[in-house]
Design goal:
By secondary structure, this protein is an alpha+beta fold. The chain has one domain: Immunoglobulin-like (Sandwich), CATH 2.60.40.420. Helix content is 24%, strand content 43%. The protein has one helix and eleven strands. The strands form two sheets. Strands 1-9-6-2-3-4 form a six-stranded mixed sheet. Strand 2 and strand 3 form a beta hairpin. The protein binds copper (II) ion (CU).
Length: 148
């Protein structure tokens, strides 16, 4: 009988511990994304919001074109508290832009632009990378997002 009680106690401790750990992970993840950056996915046919940056993936780099015509490769420069729409496409094969600290992941598909709206809430240097295997030098498709 007491062995059964012990098993029940262990079972209850396990259930409570798992719920506590998962709750902590969910809350800390949500607040991390909330306090760091803010990203909203936009359907490609909706109007872009804020400053438009054309993002082109190609084998094997990313090009970011700003409204004044400046193009940077492998570095995305943004201002804090400014709204941007990234219009993401590809010159060749399918790529996938991933900016983990912005909660952004979007395919770059030739002839089919995807839009993501972001508003950096914090200054700093973050990373981006391609997360769709796109050929021999796929691993070179990474760089930094600099928020000033
Ligand atoms: Cu790629």
């Amino acid at each position: 009988m007491s062995q059964l009680k012990n098993k029940l106690l262990v079972e209850i401790i396990w259930i409570v511990a798992v719920i506590a750990i998962l709750s902590w992970a969910a809350v800390s993840n949500a607040s991390y994304l909330e306090t760091n950056q803010n990203a909203i996915s936009n359907p490609a046919n909706s109007d872009p919001v804020g400053i438009v940056i054309n993002v082109t993936g190609y084998q094997w780099a990313w090009a970011f074109e700003y409204p004044n015509g400046t193009i940077t490769t492998d570095k995305l420069v943004l201002e804090v508290n400014q709204t941007y729409t990234l219009v993401i496409t590809s010159k060749d094969v399918i790529h996938d832009l991933y900016i983990p600290q912005f909660g952004v992941q979007s395919y770059a598909v030739p002839g089919h632009p995807n839009q993501v709206t972001i508003e950096p809430k914090k200054t700093g240097t973050f990373i981006f990378e391609c997360v769709e295997y796109c050929g021999e030098y796929h691993y070179e498709m990474r760089g930094t997002v600099v928020v000033t």
